[in-house]
C-alpha cells in the first residue's frame, strides 16, 4: 500500500514536470517579449545588458531550470500588472474569495447532490426521481452566467432579500455560493444515482436481503460504500475546478477573486502571473488526482489487498 | 404443520404495456427436515417462486397467493420485523454465483459476523469466533485466515463454502439453494453438493434445491417438483419421477440425460489429420510487485500440448476452468498467439504465417463461443450476421450472400422469416444456432466449439448437440469440442483429451476413457459426474492436487517402450490411449 502511494506520487510529480515544460515552451513560442523594440525603445547595448541581467540571453532550457528553481522556493517573480507585490502575494490575496465561494459551493453542492442522487435511485421512477433528474439536467445545461442572472433577478431585484453583488460581507456570499453549488449538485446527483442503481442491481444486495439485514444497514453500509468507489474519482478534481474561481461568477457578482486575473494576465501578457496560475492549477489537479487515487485504493480492497492468494 | 406452504401462488411483473405472469397457480409444501428439488429450465419460474417465499422480488413484482406461509408466518402479511426474522433465521438462501454473492469491499469474516449480529444480540468478537467455527464446519481448513480475506482472494468453490457457512450462521430451519453449483467445475460441484447434504443432516434442516440439472436432483433430494413455463408439471418422490415420469416435459428432460452415443461417420484418414497441434504452448510473463521489488516470472498457461484432430471426427478437450483448454482452442485458431509449437492445417504449419497469408486458412477454420449473446453483433440482422463471413472473403454477390445466409438459417432449424430479426429477439438456443450457421457458411473443415452448450438449458442443449452431430456428418467436419461437461462429451465426441493444469494428462477414445480411465485426475473427473438415477447416489472421496500428483500412474519400460524418467511423460498404454505416467525400469 505504501509502495503504491509512493509510485503514484512519483507518477504525479512526473506529470507535473511534463506539463510545466509544455507551458513554459508555449509561453516562449508566442512572439514578443518584455524588451521588444516597440515596447521598449532603447539602444542595442542597453537591451543586451538588461537581457543579461534578467537571464534572458541564456538558452531556453537554462531559463526553464532557473524558473523552476525559483518555483521550488515559491518565487514566481513579480506580476507585471501589479509590480508592488510578488506573484505569491497577489495569488494569496485574490485566491481567498475564490476559495471561500467556490469551496463552499462544492462542499454544499456535493453532499446535497449525493443525497438527491441516492433519493432518486432508491425511489426510482417516482416523482422524487423525476424531480432529481430534472434538477440535474437544468444544473448541467444552463450556463452559470444565466443561473447567476436569474438568482440576482429573483432574490435581489424582485424579492429584495439579498444584495445583488459585492464583497466582503457574508450576506453577499450567498448568491455566488448558490451559483457555484449548482454544478457539483447536478453532477453528483447524476453520478450517485447511476452508481447506486448499479450497486442495487448487483447480486450481493439480494444476498444481504436474504440474510435478514435491515434495509437501512444494506443501504448505508453496503450500497454506500460500494457506490462511493466510482464517486471519489470525480470529487476532488471537481473541487479544484470550482475552487480556483470562475470568471463568469466572479464577474457577475463583482467578487475580487482569482478568476479575473486569468483573463487579464493573458490580455496584458503578464507572463509571470500567467505561468504561476497555470502551474498552480496543474499542481492542484495533480494533487487532487493523487488524493482520489489514494482514497480509491483505500475504499477498494482489490487494490489495497492485491490479488488472489 | 409443514414448514413451507404455498398454495395458488401467482407472481406477475409489471412491464411496459401490462403485466406478465412469471408463475401461475403454484402449490407445494415442504416439511421439516425434508429435501425437495425444483427442476426446470430458465424462465420456468422456479427461482421466482422461492424468492417470493422470502419476498426478495423486485418492486415491480406482484404476488398473489391463497396461502404463502413460511415457518407458520403469513409471508404476504409479514411486516419488517417478521421479514428480518424469516430471512436468515427461518430460511437461508445460497445463490448461483458465489463470486458476485459477497459484497466485494468487506471481509468474509465481517459478512458472516454481521449476519449473526443481525439476528442475535452478540458482540463482534464472539460473532467472529462463531464465524470461524462455521467455516471449519464447511471444511475450510485455514478458517482463521479466511475470516480476514476479501471475496476476490478466494476461489469460487471456497466462496461457495463460505456462503454455506453464512447461511448456516443462524441455524435456519430450511436452506434454499438456488443453482448452487451451476457456476462451478464438475469436481467442485460434487464437493459442494456433498457438503450441502452433510450440513443438512447435521443441522436437521429442510432443503429446497433449485436446479436445471437432473443429476443434481438425483444426488440431493427426496421429492421433486417439475416446473415449466411458470407452472408445476408434476410432483412426486424422486425415484418415481426418474422411473415413471408422467409428463412429456419430464420425459424429455430425462431423455436428455440418457442420450446415446454414435460414432461419427466418414473416413478418419489417419495419414492426413484435419488439424494437428504439435508442442503448442502458451506462457505469459508475470510481474509481481512486493514493495518496490518487481519480480518477473513466467506463467505456463499451456505446456507443449500435442493434439490430433482426424478428419470427420469430433475430439473433446476436457478440463476444469484454468486447465488451459480454451487457450489451446484459441491458439489452434491463431486467435491467441502461441509461444511455441506448430499448428498444422492440411499439411501446412500456420503458426508463423502473417495476417495476409493466414486469410485462406481462416476460411477453413471457424469457431463457436459459449456466450452466444456477446458473440453476435446486436446491431446486425441475422441475415447480415450469417452472411458476413462471405462478405469478408468476397464470395458471391450481395444477393447471393443473403440467399445463402437464408438457406443456412433453415439448415440450422430456423425459419427464413427470422432473417430480418436481431439477436436480442431470439432465445439462447436460437442464438447459438445462428452462431453455428455463421461459422459453417464458409464450409470450413475444422470447427472449434468452445463450450457451445454450457449456457443452455438441458433440452435445448440436446437439440444443439444433435444439430452439431448432423452437420458434422453432412459436411464432413472435424470438430474440436471444448467442454467441462462430461455427459455432453460422452454423447457427442469420438475421443477425449483431458487437460489438467496446462498439460494433457490422458487421451483415449471416448468409450475407452469412460470405461477404463488411468490417470487419477481423469478418475476424479468421471467420479464427480452426478448420478443419472437417484438409486446410484453415493458418498464420494475427493482428491487434493497433492493426492493426484502422488497417484500418478507408473509403468515400466517393457510395458510402454518409453525411456525411463523421474518426470511424468505421456505414454501409450493401448491403441489411441495415452496417459501421463512415470516410467521406471
TrEMBL record, chain A:
InterPro entries xref list: BPD_transp_1_N (IPR045621), MetI-like (IPR000515), MetI-like_sf (IPR035906)
Keyword Plastid in annotation: no
Positions of the ABC transmembrane type-1 domain: 95-292
Location(s), subcellular: Cell membrane
Spans through the membrane: 12-30, 99-122, 134-161, 173-191, 228-253, 273-299
GO biological process, one term: transmembrane transport
Coiled-coil spans in chain: none
Entry keywords, A to Z: Cell membrane, Membrane, Transmembrane, Transmembrane helix, Transport
GO CC terms in record: plasma membrane
Listed Pfam families: BPD_transp_1, BPD_transp_1_N
Membrane topology: Multi-pass membrane protein
Domain of life of the native organism: Bacteria
Membership in a protein family: Belongs to the binding-protein-dependent transport system permease family.
Protein name: ABC transporter permease
Organism classification: Bacteria, Pseudomonadati, Pseudomonadota, Alphaproteobacteria, Hyphomicrobiales
UniProtKB/TrEMBL annotation, chain B:
Keyword Cell membrane assigned: yes
An annotated Gene Ontology molecular function: ATP binding
SMART domains the record matches: AAA
Topology of this chain in the membrane: Peripheral membrane protein
Origin superkingdom: Bacteria
GO cellular component: plasma membrane
Protein's cellular compartments: Cell inner membrane
Gene3D superfamilies found in the cross-reference section: P-loop containing nucleotide triphosphate hydrolases
GO biological process: peptide transport; transmembrane transport
Domain spans labelled ABC transporter: 4-254, 275-526
Protein keywords: ATP-binding, Cell membrane, Membrane, Nucleotide-binding, Transport
Family: Belongs to the ABC transporter superfamily.
Protein name stated in the entry: ABC transporter domain-containing protein
Source organism (scientific name): Devosia soli
